[in-house]
Amino acid sequence: MTRIVAGESAVPKRKRAIEAALAIGLVLLIAVGAIVASNVSRNAEAQAAEPSPAAELKLGYFGNVTHAPALVGITKGFLQQALGSTKLSTETFNAGPAAIEALNAGAIDAAYIGPNPAINSFAKSQGQSVRVIAGAAAGGAQLVVRPGITSAAELKGKTLASPQLGGTQDVALRAWLSSQGYRTDVNGSGDVAINPTDNAQTLKLFQDGKLDGAWLPEPWASRLVLQAGAKVLVDEKDLWNGTGTGKPGEFPTTILIVNQKFAADHPDTVKALLKGNAASVAWLNSAPADEKAGVINSALQETAGAALPTDVLDRSLANITFTLDPLAGSYPKLLQDGVDAGTTKKADLNGLFDLRALNEVTGTSKISAAGLGQD
Questions:
Q1: What would the mean pLDDT of 146-174 be, rounded to a whole number?
Q2: Counting CB atoms within 10 angstroms of each CB, which of 44, 73, 80, 92 has the fewest?
Q3: Given this model, what pLDDT does residue 49 score?
């Protein structure tokens, strides 16, 4: 029975009930629609954020024989062939710190570089900037000096050069001088003055008698020896006994690094880059000597403006091992050398390496990250 109140009929009451029900239904529909729209939006965002091949890969490297995997990979097309539809753009540098600046600024996405600038970038960014993804070359660095200098004891008051402050050879020189009891400062003062100098300028200054020596990568060490009469005081391979790597005499000179965000956004492109690098290293380790020299010299002519004399190139290649192993076990020492040299702060290197894609590409015995990342 419906109760009727004075001044009110049953029909309006029912009408209001129906209107209320419709209103509630509308609210529910709107809520459901909002949920569906939100889910669609999230799905679209997730799809948009999914990793995909990059349209372009911007790669940095040096015009040095120690960067032969880059030189060969570009000249013979190994890198572009592996990258497929991804466009390969390149930029050359003289030393690592400048390449790191370009990488962190987004001007390049990956780089062939020495280990110490990579360590510096990783440490300063608290692990957010770069990842080491492969090796390229080991060895090929020496301290060469004037013929009259025959021992470390004769270096006090002398002036030496390195490619760039904080670079791999710069750190190696400062660390070695410290082990000999000398003090050096990043401003060029100290018991031995170190002037970071462009490699080509170092050769000229040495020839002009304005430098007493330099710690250099190949081919510059060989150029000073064969073209300027320098003598080898320290071959860096003699300072590495294999601790941490199991490979006496080998130390990382050139590695392949990638911007961390680029790697996360484009893992397939990074894997393709690694395939190209592996093809370059394999070719360098199997090609006939004459063919190898011809390809490298052609690349140096293009990037550095001049080919090398046969004796310089032969001496340089004899000092270098081309390898995909970044020798991760050597990095604690490299870090400590940088700290001792005053160019690096103490840091936790865990996470510096991501060798998973490299090990997928090689498919052979696993290359170790030595507990400093993933492999």
A1: 95
A2: 44
A3: 54
